[in-house]
Amino acid sequence: MSAARDPLARFFRCSDRERAVFEAGVKLGSVFHQYVGTPVDTHSVRALERAIEAGMRAQPAVVSARVRIDRAALRAGMTKLGYASLTGDMLDVTVTTRVGRATAVGRMRYVPALRYPVMHIERVSG
Question: How many CB atoms lie within 10 A of CB 4?
Answer without folding.
Answer: 7
